[in-house]
Amino acid sequence: MLKQLFAWWDSTTYGTSFTLWRRRARLVGKDEQGNRYFEERSPSGPNGQIRRWVVYHGIAEASRVPPDWHGWLHHTFEDPPTVSPLKRRGWEKDHLPNMTGTPLAYHPPGSLAARDGKARFEEYEAWTPENA
Q: Which of 8, 37, 50, 88 is the most exposed place for a label (fewest CB within 10 A)?
């Protein structure tokens, strides 16, 4: 109970639940990560737009919203992906959340945080104005 009251970063709080109830928001759909998407029934947003919300399943991290739902949230697409899904192209990769700060973060070769623990430094000459 206290977790829902104070832990805004882990799913929804009572305030968010109350706002969704007060605005009579309807559930539009869920994505493959379990995030739920809501839309109010009558316009109240800027320029008379209908407000839209995402309630995260787990950690509230904006990079966990897939591109098709992101477009719907920001009114780029009028219909949600449950009605008209985006066509997948052959070159598109599956959506991945931002892994910065986790053990799965990308570390380029030569990084001190590289997975093998071996930093590789190449010979280089530092730039100075006299070299230009």
A: 88
